[in-house]
Amino acid sequence: MTGDAHHLLPSASPVTLIGVDGRAVRDALPDDAALMRALQGLITARRLNEQAYALVRQGRLAVYPSSHGQEACQVAAAQVLDDGDWLFPTYRDTAAIAERGVDPVEALSLLKGDWHCGYDPYEHKVAPHTTPLATQLPHAVGVAHAARLKGEPTVVMALCGDGGTSEGDFHEALNFAAVLKAPVVFFLQNNEYAISVPLSRQTAAPSLAHKGIGYGIKGERVDGNDVAAVLAVLKDAVDRARAGEGPQLVEAHTYRMQAHTNADDATRYRTDDEVAAWVDRDPIVRLEKHLRDRDLLTDSLLSEMREAAEKKAASMRDGINRDIAPNPSDLFAYVYATPTTQLQEQGAQA
Questions:
Q1: How many CB atoms lie within 10 A of CB 116?
Q2: For the stretch 53-81, what's the b/e string if a residue is b when 16 or more beta carbons lie within 10 angstroms of its beta carbon?
Q3: Cα-based torsion angle of the residue sequence 322, 328, 331, 334 in order, rounded to the nearest 10 degrees
Q4: What CA–CA distance (Å, rounded) separates 200 from 328?
Q5: Which tens digit of pLDDT belongs to each residue from 47-83?
Q6: What dihedral do alpha carbons 346, 111, 312, 295 form, nearest 10°?
Q7: Can you give the pLDDT at residue 3?
Q8: What is the pLDDT of residues 235-258, one digit of tens each?
């Protein structure tokens, strides 16, 4: 390897700023306001995950891929972006979409079984919430490249899971982004499993972040359960992309605490002991310990955060439980901007 390529390699171990005991292991922490904002985001994301799972059991959602345990990734991915930046989510990123400002009720429209995205992607700069693996990544590169051509300071945050890295779209997106020097951050949430397939069955690379060097993209690894570290690493990646340094690749090492979806039986492919080992690494508990040790978090403030989260969950619950009568004419209204003669004839017969 030439000396010029070494700067593309990720760190030997994931970047960590706050240990599992809540103590800072490095000095370069985000400021106190950012950490407090992150804690509110974590608490809200956890509560939305819990409420969504309850709605599945009540038959109000068709399916829900929970991000329980991955909330640090969800919150940080949204919070490091400017208003003009774009977020390209996966099916497991409802919490990130909500943190970006989209109404959770609208964010869950797809998972409720509705026929459309549920929200206006342009309002909050959030691409459609869809389920195909990695297909959103080339689209993210396209948006980033278009912004660069127009001279806009836009950065695109493209989310992906470890399973998505086994798809051709992932590799095509990285290659195009590198060649075009597109300002996009590929953020991989490595939660150890692609449904039931463990990471060891997907790749032989030292880490997923190492895949960047093959395309000329800088890679980095971060402790995905340490929200302070995720904020810092993603902020650095976004700043680099915005400064014209091209695409960045960040791998977060985290864990999916719950089943892949409500239709999955995770006990068939992983043990209870494996899951239990990640309990102490809970991103919320870790940050709470840190902020309490520094006298920044009181019982009163924590109560206010939980109340705010509960209010948002209640609003989501009420919205999802609201029955909306379908309008059959919608089947014809949103196919083409200008309906064809055939569509008009079909619509008249409906």
A1: 10
A2: bebbeeebbebbbbbbbbbbbbbbbbbbb
A3: -70
A4: 47
A5: 999 999 999 999 999 999 999 999 999 999 999 999 9
A6: -150
A7: 55
A8: 999 999 999 999 999 999 999 999
Identify whether the C-beta of residue 49 lies closer than 8 Å to the C-beta of residue 56: no
Long-range interactions of 22-26: CB distance < 8 A, separation 24+: 22/286, 22/287, 22/288, 22/289, 22/290, 22/292, 22/293, 23/290, 23/293, 24/290
Ordered domains of the chain (ranges, CATH): 3-349 (3.40.50.970)
Q: Is 188 helix (H, G, I), strand (E, B) or coil?
A: strand
CB 24 within 8 A of CB 239: no
| Residue 166 bridge partners (DSSP) | none
- Nearest Cα to 305, choosing from 102, 69, 47? 47
Distance between CA atoms of residues 143 and 201, nearest Å: 32
Which amino acid makes up residue 87? L
Contact 223, 16 (CB under 8 A): yes
Position 2 pLDDT exceeds 70 = no
Name the CA radius of gyration of the chain, rounded: 21
Strand partners of residue 194:
197
Which distant-in-sequence residues (6+ apart) come within 8 Å of 88 by Cβ?
A: 127, 136, 137, 139, 140, 143, 156, 157, 158, 159
Which of left, alpha, beta for 213 (phi over 0: left; psi -120 to 50: alpha)?
Answer: alpha
Judged by average pLDDT, the poorest of 81-90, 104-113, 305-314, 326-335 is: 326-335
Tally of helices (H runs) and strands (E runs) in the chain: 14, 7
Token pair 């959030």: residue: 126
Residue indicated by tokens 């080992």: 277
**Chain segment 105-132, per-residue pLDDT in tens:** 999 998 998 877 889 999 999 999 988 9
Mean pLDDT of the chain: 95
Sign of CA dihedral 190, 192, 196, 201: positive
Q: Under DSSP, is residue 156 helix (H, G, I), strand (E, B) or coil?
A: strand
